[in-house]
Amino acid sequence: MIKTLAISNYRSLLNLVIPFGNLNVITGENASGKSNLYKALRLLSETAEGGVINSLAREGGLNSTFWAGPEKISKAMRKGEVNIEGGPKQKAARLRLGFSTEDFGYSISLGLPPPGSLGPTAFSLDPEIKKECIWAGEAYRPASLLIDRTGAAVKVRSNRQWQVISQHASHFESIFAQVADPTTAPEVITMREEIKGWRFYDHFRSDAEAPARLPQLGTRTPVLHHDGRDLAAALQTIIEIGDVNALNDAISDAFPGATLSIAVQEDSRFSVNLQQEGLLRPLSASELSDGTLRYLLWVAALLTPRPPPLMVLNEPETSLHPDLLPALARLIIRAAKNTQVWVVSHASRLIATLESAEECHSVHLEKVLGQTQVVGQGMLDEPLWRWPDKSK
User: Fold this and answer.
1) What is the pLDDT of residues 260-301, one digit of tens each?
2) What one-character DSSP code corresponds to residue 380?
3) What are phi and psi of 343, to 5 degrees?
4) Which of 336, 254, 326 is nearest to 295 (CA)?
5) Which of 200, 210, 208 is nearest to 339 (CA)?
6) What confidence tens digit (pLDDT) does each residue in 125-156 have?
7) By three-state DSSP, how is residue 40 classified?
8) What are the φ and ψ backbone dihedral angles of 184, each rounded to 5 degrees?
9) Which residues contact 34 (CB under 8 A, 6 or more apart)?
C-alpha cells in the first residue's frame, strides 16, 4: 500500500507530500489540482512501463509541466504585502515524483539536458532522467539507499558496499527498463512489478457504439479493460470464480428487484442482460442508459477476482444519476477491503457516503496563489519525506 506520495514542480503541485490509507477520497473545488495529482500518479506508473518520456511529450514537453510561478513564494507574497514576482533561478529545474510503501520507497527526478551536451540531435528537448533511487522503508536516508542511479551510472548496495552495474544507462529510460537481474537488483524487479500492477479507470465508453454494448467474443477476464470493452466476459468471470454474492448485492443495491445474467451465443459471443422489476424481458446492454451501463462497468472493475495493489478511479460519478452514487460508494468501500483505492471526485453524495466509512482518508485540495495545497495540512502534518537529490 502506498503510504506517502510526493510531487515537486509539476504544474500546480510545487511541493506536495500526502499521506494515504487504504480507502482515499481526493476532492476539492474546480481547478484545485485534482487532475494534476491524478496525472502525476499516472506519470509515476509510466516509469514501470517505460513510457514516462512519451507521456511528458504528450503533455507538451517537460518545460510545459514545470510549476509556472516563482521558485519560492515568500511570506510577504502570501500576505499580499508585495506582488508575486520571480527572480533569477537558483536551482536547476527538476520534476520530481516519488512514493513509499511500508517496505520500499522510490523517486525519480527529470530535467532538461544542458544546451549542446548531446551533440547533434533532433531530440534536444527530450527530458533526461537525472536521478532515480530505491530505498528501504518509508523515508529516505542515505543509509537505507539500495539502488542509486545518477545520470548514466547505476549502482546497487551489496553487503554494505556499492557495486556499479551500469555506467552507460540510457538517459531517457528508467532503471525499470534497463535493470532486470533479480539476483543483483531484486528491489528493482519488486518495485517494477508493484507499479505495473496499478490500475487506472478514467474513461468508460457508454456511447451508442461502445464495445460494452455489443456482443463480444468472451474469454476469462479477471481484469476489466480500462475502456470496458470486455464487460460481459468480466462479469461472467466474477460469476464463475469471483464473489457472486457481492455481484448480486451490488446489482440489487442500485436496482432493487433486478437480476443480471450473461447470454452466451453459439459463436461464443457474450452479451449483458439486465432483468428489471416489472419488465417482461431483460434489457440488453445496447438498450441500457449510459448511467446504468457505467454502473455495471464499475461493478466489473471493482469486484475483480484479481485485486491490484492500487486502483485509481477518476471521477467515477460521470454519467451516473445522483441516486446511484451511494450504491457506487458502498461498492467502492467493499473493494477497499481487498485493494488500496483512490477516488478523485467532486460529487457530494459519493464523497459523503465514502467519508462515512471509518477507514476513509479524505484529501481536500485547494489552490493558494496558484499552488495546490492540502486543506488544513501544516508542516507538522506532512509525512516525513526527503528527496535524494534535493540539494542538486
Assistant:
1) 999 999 889 999 999 999 888 999 999 999 999 999 999 999
2) G
3) -120, 120
4) 254
5) 200
6) 788 999 999 999 999 999 999 999 999 999 99
7) helix
8) -75, -40
9) 26, 27, 28, 344, 346, 365
